[in-house]
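Hi R.,

Here's the chain you asked about this morning:
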Amino acid sequence: MRAAMVSEFGGPEVFQVVEVPDPVPGAGEVLVGVEVIDTLWLETMVRSGAGQDFWPMRPPYVPGNGVAGRVVQVGAGVDQGLRGRRVVAHTGGEGGYADRAVVSVDAMAVVPDDVDLTVAAALLHDGVTALALFDVTKVGPQDRVLVVGASGGLGLLCVQLARARAASVVAVARGAKLEGVARLGPDAVIDSARPDWVEQARAVFGEHGADVVLDNVGGALGEAAFTLAARGGRFSAHGTPSGRFANVDRRAADERGVAVTGIEAAQLSDRDRMRYVGQALREAAAGVIAPVVGQTFPLDRAGAAHAAIEGRTAFGKTLITTGA
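And the predicted structure, written out as C-alpha cells:
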C-alpha cells in the first residue's frame, strides 16, 4: 500500500510517498480501506519538529490520526459483520496517511447511510471539539456567542451550532474568507484585519457583551476578544493557530466573573470522544451541522495539504483522499 511518510522534521517538502506492506489487524482491531483522511493543524506542527517536547513521533513516521473508509479485514474477537461497513475512526496518533490503516474497534464508529464519508472524516475532530466546547461553555438559548477564527473547520461548525442553540452569533474572520462565513447566516461577520474590529463587535453586542467567546485563534487576537466577554460570561481560550494560546488576564477575569477555560477542557477520555463522534454524526444526519470542506488533496500531495494549512490560505476543512 501507499503511505505518505515524514522523512525528517522540516517543511511540507519532507513528505515522501512510499510503498509499505499492508498492516494486519490484531485482536480487537480492524483494517480499514482508507478513502478520506482528516488533516489537522497539529500534524503540521509535529511534522515541522516544533512539538518534540510534547509528542513522541520521530522520523520516519506516517502521520494521521483520523480516517474514514470501509472495513476490509477484522481481527480476532471482532464481529465479522463489520466487513464492508463504512466507518470513521481514530488510529491512535499515527498511520492514517495511507491507503489502509489498522484501528481499534473501540476507536471506530459506523457511519450512517445518509452521511458521506467526507463529512464523517471532517467531523471526526472538529465536530467532537465543537460539541465538547459548547458543553463546557454551557451555551444556551439566551446566549450571545462570539466565534473568533470562524473560517476554519472548527470555527464554521461553531457558527452552525451557535445558530442552532444560541440567541445570536457574531463571526470573526479575515479578508477574503468573510464571504464564505457569511453564507452560514451569522448575525454579523466582522473582519479581524480591520484595526477597529473590536469596536465593531462591541457595537453589535452592546454594553452587555458576549456571553460566550470561543477563541479558535489565540495570541493577540484572542486577547482582544477577551475584552468583549460579558460580566459573568465564559471565555474558551483553546485556539493556537496564531502560534500560542491567548494569555488571559486572570485577575481581570475574576473581577468580571468571567469563567476562563483552555484546551484542557476539550481533552476527552476515549469513551467521551467516541460518544461525541456518534453525536456529531447524528447532528450531521439531521442537518444541524454540515462541515465545510474547503480543499482536498490526493495522498501524493500530502505536503500541499500541510502547506495550505500552515499558510493560512485554507478555508474550512482540509482533507486528504486516497482515490479509493
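Residues 64 and 96 are 4 Å apart (CA to CA).

Let me know if you need anything else.
M.
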